[in-house]
Amino acid sequence: MFTFSNATQFRHHKLWLVFTAGIVTLAVCLASMFGDLKESAVISNLDILGEGSIAFLTLAWMLAALASRPPGTVTSLLTIGLGLFLFSVSLDFLDEFFHYPEEAYWISMIESYPAAVGMVVMTAALYRWHLEQRALNLQLRRREWDFRDHDAIDPITQLYRAEYWKEQIHKQQRSGKSAVLAIIDINNFSLFNQKHGYTEGDRYLHDIAQLIIMNLRQQDLACRYAGDRFAILMPDISPMQADIILNDIKASIQHLAFRHSQNANAIYTTARSTQVTLLPNQRLATVINNMLLELERPHDSAA
């Protein structure tokens, strides 16, 4: 039903999978060791269906949480809380098959307690999940500006493609508001791909994209233009302020210590950029072409 996205995620969650199996096993052992099997005539199929469904769905929720989430505090709390709840509902389900003598009355008593504790733990997990999601939403707003069109997202950098950037520029022009356009180009990136391979190159571009997002304002838009070039739209900003942001981005890229998966030595690179102030009546194709020509001119590799 649920699959883990990679072997690393499975290894990280192996302990929790063992915990899940142990919870169910403990409930079965307690019921079989201290209880007596009921006669078939007194077993209610309707109760079995109802309580069995609750136990099965709780188990499914646990597996879904482990398969969908990375290791961390939220995942651990969710698994512990659901595990305690699963223990209680498993004992409740097994009650339909076993009758407990008076000396084992304590089994019936402990059915409810783990579920109550589990609900408290899950409440803490959901609160932490809320805080986590709020932080992720902030990053999404930085990437997506005020719009969402996930079909236009580049799978490597998780940024929008150039077409989306151009669409937002046209909207900005129609609104009559000022903006600065910029394109950032990674120096000698083709040599990086030749030396380290395209897989490592894609991973490097993803890391650079995160740096660009971190240095932009919430209302700014960053997209992948093409190859190793990133396009930026910064509304309501002066050219001087935009230049400061671009210099911060290039400095961050220059100091990014990228490590190849097979080598502990850090790899560094530099970037250059060009920018232009957007005017309402400018022809966008001409503006972008001039920016690309500017990037093609001879440059200092550290620029």
UniProtKB/TrEMBL annotation:
Domain GGDEF per the UniProt entry, residue ranges: 177-303
Matches recorded under Gene3D superfamilies: 3.30.70.270
GO cellular component terms, A-Z: plasma membrane
Keyword Glycosyltransferase: no
Presence of keyword Transmembrane helix: yes
UniProt keyword list: Membrane, Transmembrane, Transmembrane helix
EC number in record: 2.7.7.65
Pfam families associated with the record: GGDEF
GO molecular function, one term: diguanylate cyclase activity
Transmembrane segments: 15-34, 46-67, 74-93, 105-127
GO biological process: cell adhesion involved in single-species biofilm formation; negative regulation of bacterial-type flagellum-dependent cell motility
Name of this protein: diguanylate cyclase
Lineage: Bacteria, Pseudomonadati, Pseudomonadota, Gammaproteobacteria, Alteromonadales
